[in-house]
Amino acid sequence: MKDIANVVHIGELIAVSKVFHLNPFRMVTLIEDGEMEVFQNKEDFVEKYGQKDTYDEELEDWCELNNGKVFTKPK
Questions:
Q1: Which of 12, 15, 17, 33 has the fewest CB neighbours in a 10 Å radius?
Q2: CA–CA separation, 16 vs 50, rounded Å?
Q3: Which domain of life is it from (predicted)?
Q4: Strand pairing partners for 73?
Q5: Distance between CA atoms of 23 and 15, rounded to whole angstroms?
Q6: Rounded CA gap, 42 and 68, in Å?
Q7: Residue 60: which of 72, 40, 43, 75 has the closest Cα?
Q8: pLDDT tens digits for 29-59?
Q9: Which residue ranges make up each domain of the chain?
Q10: What is the rounded CA–CA span in Å between residue 22 and residue 49?
Q11: 3-state secondary structure 15-62
């Protein structure tokens, strides 16, 4: 993903980094490399991964912020 600053606010990175136990720099690197995804809303996330109770096979974890953005943590 290019121009990550236009998609993700530093406050969002800090909040999610605490959930995923990654530092913000590592998260930016994963997002830029396409290993971590940022969805603008939960509908986009569900469209790609489906509606499930767990996503154990596809993702290690995911986090939805109160503004609707969803971040995924790769396995």
A1: 33
A2: 22
A3: Bacteria
A4: 61
A5: 10
A6: 6
A7: 75
A8: 999 999 999 999 999 999 999 988 888 888 9
A9: 4-73
A10: 23
A11: HHHHHHCCCHHHHHHHHHCCCCCEECCHHHHHHHHCCCCCCCCCCCEE
